[in-house]
Amino acid sequence: MTPDHRPIAAALWMGGSITGFCLVAVAGRALSTGLDTFEIMFYRSVVGVILVVALALATRQTEALRPRHLQTHVLRNLFHFAGQNLWLYALTLIPLAQLFALEFSYPILVALSAPFFLGERLPPRRLVAAAIGFAGILIVARPFGGAGLSIGLMAALLCAVGFAGAAVITKKLTRVTSVLAILFWLTVTQTLFGLVGAAFGGGPAWPAPPLWPWILAIGLGGLGAHLSLTKALSLAPASLVTPLDFLRLPLIGVVGMVWYSEPLDIWVFVGGAIIFAANWLNILSDTPHSRPA
Hints:
Elements: H1 7-31, H2 37-58, H3 70-91, H4 96-103, H5 106-117, H6 124-141, H7 151-174, H8 179-199, H9 212-235, H10 238-245, H11 248-260, H12 266-284
Helix pairs in contact: 1-9, 1-10, 1-11, 2-8, 2-9, 3-7, 3-8, 4-11, 4-12, 5-6, 5-7, 6-12, 10-12
């Protein structure tokens, strides 16, 4: 916790983060009618590069854009690129609330992998949290139900793996570089990844005029969400900020119902609440005994 402890300001910043992530979901669905996931990532990242460079110039932090720790940045962004593409793919196949609930499982994966990659201990409480979180995932995905484990659910589950890998490597990067540098190389490398991926389909298609506002929306929404989340974490402890992020689930459920006529599935919210409880238990286990050995 920083000396600048302002929980109300942090909550307001989290409102911006939640709005940004929901905007990304709506814009991603709109763009999927004319672009594939590689093309969406390419154009989104181009917008991100422009915004980050403008921010660096405005705040006179261009020194942060110098090429340092490039191998770690590339590895981190490969995980994020894979996770984000799977997320965009699942976005078109399963309800928004179900996707968001499964995405929230990635902190549990981070907690389980941290001992191996970050040198952190794994207290018994985290193992219990992982088991609870896994139960929540089963309730949301219902792989043994009549519909079985669909390709959309598989993509959503795998996107959480990609986000977890990115989060673990981001933790390493924050020890040696700035948030602005992480955002800059995130957008630059994913612009290149998106361009290469789109090239296999004949190159990135030029978006139709009605899609350009959505491209701007997904770029602004994604970057704004991450910046707002980072700012919120600088103003209040993670134990306060993280639970607020779970407000995305009921909000996106309402968005899906109003915009896309998706039914509000009570089991998605039950499973999401259990996943939230597992993440909350992980936060409680973040004591001095769980810091890097």
